[in-house]
Structure prediction request, 349 residues.
Amino acid sequence: MSDGLSAEDSFRLQVLLAQDLKAIRIDESTLTLHALTDKGEASIPLSPNCREDKYLRQVRELLSGHALGSPGGYPVFLTRWTRHGQMAGVNLGKLLLTGEPEAVVAVVHSPGLTDELARHAWWTLPTIENARLMLSREAVAQGPMGRVLADFLVEHLPFLQDDHLGIIDTVAVLIYSNAVTPAGLETMWKFGRRSNTHFVAFLEMAAGRLPLPLNAHALHGEIVTLLSGEPHAAAHVLERALSSQGQTFLDAAADVLERPETQEVVSRTLNAIGRYLSSQINLNELATSPGAAWHPHADMLAAAARLACRDDSLIQPIFARSTAIGSLMRRKIEPVLTPLLQDITILRG
Prediction:
């Protein structure tokens, strides 16, 4: 035991470390060490005999020496590796016994993360970023912790507020993990009516299976019949756009593009539009003849063809010269997005 620790703390830590511990965290605000054991949680109130920061460093050095055989504290080289997932050969469970938040993040980033380790890491450091990272691991998403983390992220989505990238990343990992309930998906979708950034990940990752779908376009059945023998790519694009899922997709995309908050939101939405409508068709064929002028719905065919060819190249020349966001950004991109929104209106009717 470290000679720097008070006699009382030294004895208590000796007793604690003799047990089968799963994880340790230190509450610096209350100077309390908490441990997760097979029998539940245990706590030790610390009694510093010097400056608090120095004393806590000594406690962590002791914990690291016991768990990793590193008497100098959590190894600096592991800190450098933490966010790159380069933890091969390291016992991840032992890292959770060091009392170091950075060691917990190392475990969370590791490709070797298991459902059990995720449960221990979550007890130690329950943050939104850690929940996202752990839920992206299949072993965690498909295990009991998957639902725990998914419920937490859905509940805390409203608190991200103006963190638009955080919103997109959170919704994306929830969709990707398949750990969120149908009710949870609907809740996230409804958030989009108050903050349209929530729609972006749905447009990217769940196009064709969006929650709370709208009705198909009134002309959908008629156009499907008219175009049933039409081999051209535009016919397939139009049929997709007028379907129930297509109408839901276009409605959400228009909501985002009418009032986007950041450049990334705009870019990713434009890419999602082109990717969804052009899926499984030949864009070269589409570009050579976007619609038959003789067709009674030629304007809709042309609008669908144009949208299928859209991506963020439409907007990058503007963004390359400006870092504007919010209302200033919207004014700069309005001339570019207005024709695109008009095409969506044609298809939405």
